[in-house]
Protein 1
Amino acid sequence: NAGVTQTPKFQVLKTGQSMTLQCAQDMNHEYMSWYRQDPGMGLRLIHYSVGAGITDQGEVPNGYNVSRSTTEDFPLRLLSAAPSQTSVYFCASSWDRGSYGYTFGSGTRLTVV
Amino acid sequence: QQQVKQSPQSLIVQKGGISIINCAYENTAFDYFPWYQQFPGKGPALLIAIRPDVSEKKEGRFTISFNKSAKQFSLHIMDSQPGDSATYFCAASRGRGSTLGRLYFGRGTQLTVWP
């Protein structure tokens, strides 16, 4: 039982490049979300999904895209990377919408140069 | 607008002392208040949570105190240990409505417990 798996753990991108951050969970959780963590800013919600085929925007969605074709996977796409997207990204999942027991992945540290 | 305000930003406590972190919120629709603990290089992990129908919840050395009228809640760590050194986040969410399940986080408190 791996929980929430994020890949890669580290990534360096050049400005303008695109990439996909992967997130997979094996707990059959319906609710999945992406957060970014910046010093002094806490965790800010980028996008979230309440089930396969259903996604919605969070607080800071600009420059990011998501899709949810299966219950297990929730990839985050950076369309055209910018230095302002340098951050640590966390994927999280929960078995229901009531926020019981969110499980976080170990994060992806992204640097855009 | 920040939904959950957390203080202090950093906290240094001597081993064996009590660590206290405070959070405040405005939205009275919030009905779930968790605390997360994060060690360097790791993702946040759920530590303890409370619902507004109780004023206090205790799990081992960790206690949440909740004041519904003041819209404040706090985390108390009794007999603080060096292994408690981490970043702590408070959060809040609502159990109904269009934002069902969304967690709003405070900005975090970096706790250092020195021997």
Protein 2
Amino acid sequence: GNSVTQMEGPVTLSEEAFLTINCTYTATGYPSLFWYVQYPGEGLQLLLKATKADDKGSNKGFEATYRKETTSFHLEKGSVQVSDSAVYFCALDGDSNYQLIWGAGTKLIIKP
Amino acid sequence: GAVVSQHPSRVICKSGTSVKIECRSLDFQATTMFWYRQFPKKSLMLMATSNEGSKATYEQGVEKDKFLINHASLTLSTLTVTSAHPEDSSFYICSALSGNTEAFFGQGTRLTVV
């Protein structure tokens, strides 16, 4: 069945460091891929998405490219800030049209 | 990690009836729970934020009289879809905050209104 695997956290970085959070997936068909972010004390927010192979989603300096050949959708940011500290979730839409398949989430901690 | 149990996982109901969905945090206390809805092929949409002992905060465009939320205890929040109609058919998912920093998700509920 469909599944999403994220790197385990927490990931701790210094401010201005380069960030990569790995996400790989298993899916039949051609799912859309998402990154959601949850800041402390808040609900989920959609960060970015990609709907087909080779698409690049981007928002707030974050990017992720839909790589069908490696079944990956890694999240990257060139220079992180303390305000990026949050939990990041990778997800894909399953073939039911109703359900997102979620990764377990990766907690990111950015130290000044 | 912490466990959030959402029940039922699937429900089919007749148009005009009401359906209650439960969200329980099994091994932690959650002062805040979130309810989301996903339309087909769309991203998850936050419906409301549920705080224990107080009224839920609804997002713009969400009818509070249609989607009743009760967060009566630190481990239970319920979402009741009142007078359900076919357009309410969707996937509903809850999440519970543990320690105000980490959210854990329920398994989701697929509601079909016929």
